[in-house]
What we know:
Radius of gyration: 18 Å
Number of helices: 10
CATH class: Alpha Beta
CATH superfamily: NAD(P)-binding Rossmann-like Domain
Bound molecules: NADPH dihydro-nicotinamide-adenine-dinucleotide phosphate, dtdp-4-keto-L-rhamnose, magnesium ion
Number of strands: 12
Strand order of the largest sheet: 2-1-3-4-5-10
Largest sheet: 6 strands, parallel
CATH architecture: 3-Layer(aba) Sandwich
Strand content: 15-25%
Number of domains: 1
CATH topology: Rossmann fold
Shape: globular
Distance between the termini: 34 Å
Amino acid sequence: MHLLIFGKTGQVARELAREAGARGFRAEFLGRDAADLTAPDACAAAIAATGAEVIVNAAAYTAVDAAEADRATAQAVNADAPGAMARAAAARGLPFLHVSTDYVFDGTADRPWREDDPVAPLGVYGATKLDGERQVAAAGGPHAILRTSWVFSAHGKNFVKTMLRLGRERPELSVVDDQKGGPTPAADIARALLTLAEGILAGRPGGLYHFAGAPTVSWADFADAIFDAAALPHRPLVHRIATSAYPTPARRPLHSALDCARIRDLHGIEQPDWQRGLAEVVKELETAQ
Ligand SMILES: NC(=O)C1=CN([C@@H]2O[C@H](COP(=O)(O)OP(=O)(O)OC[C@H]3O[C@@H](n4cnc5c(N)ncnc54)[C@H](OP(=O)(O)O)[C@@H]3O)[C@@H](O)[C@H]2O)C=CC1
Ligand SMILES: Cc1cn([C@H]2C[C@H](O)[C@@H](COP(=O)(O)OP(=O)(O)O[C@H]3O[C@@H](C)C(=O)[C@@H](O)[C@H]3O)O2)c(=O)[nH]c1=O
Ligand SMILES: [Mg+2]
């Protein structure tokens, strides 16, 4: 398989490079220098000129709090550029794979969210990602949108690396215990995307899919699991707090676990256990030191 991938340095992009290599696929990555998503037409032009069989968008504006004060950039990167890419891919009949987020939901459900549940984003990041989903679907070409959550890896910015950094600096940390979701290793997302791409090329259905790690936990549970997995000189104490005690510019969903049955039933892709992925990421970080 020959893939064209938007994004080069992000968590999912880096794992796509590793996984495509492992499967013997040819993958070309366009970083910000080659395709800036604030210029959607340039992204579309790259697709019009490509020899790839599948297009993947792994780039996004992921700074949830910063997006609140920077809606225009988030809209261009998360919505208008993916829309332009999907239309350019549709014009050539090339499958377009896009990644979205649990933050399209408002977090009020008492069971894991299904693909057809009502969306109601609480912030600019979620709202622009939702508009991106809609533009990609409306382009009318073969496509898949993978909604995932709480992504972590040894690269880039994520909660695991933040906790390990803070945990080295402080004996105690306060972490919210009333926001629950599914941490997801970026490596598992990369594997799911490549399996989806193969499935779509083989005629299996596209559309919207949920894919997140199990079991569902709170951010405080996740912090404790991180400190259990890592060998820090002093294990920090995690104080469990309410969201109201940790004010942030963006509101976040309280319950964002995703029901991942559809991708299992239609593509045979199982929900990953994030605890295994966490052990691998901790090992990778320790080896890199
Ligand atoms: N991170 C998470 O917790 C979650 C992420 N997702 C989704 O998963 C996907 C992948 O996320 P993840 O790998 O974590 O993202 P990262 O934040 O790790 O990486 C984002 C990537 O987007 C690139 N990018 C940002 N702005 C631009 C721009 N203007 N032009 C070109 N490239 C740009 C960045 O490039 P550069 O390095 O140059 O800044 C970077 O490569 C995204 O669609 C995201 O919305 C979904 C749920 C959770
Ligand atoms: C650093 C820190 C965070 N928190 C809280 C803030 C927040 O509610 C929660 C997680 O913080 P983060 O900033 O890592 O989370 P956030 O950036 O909101 O993570 C989200 O990113 C986007 C891109 C997504 O798509 C989502 O799926 C999700 O992964 O933990 C604490 O309670 N204590 C702390 O010391
Ligand atoms: Mg963040």
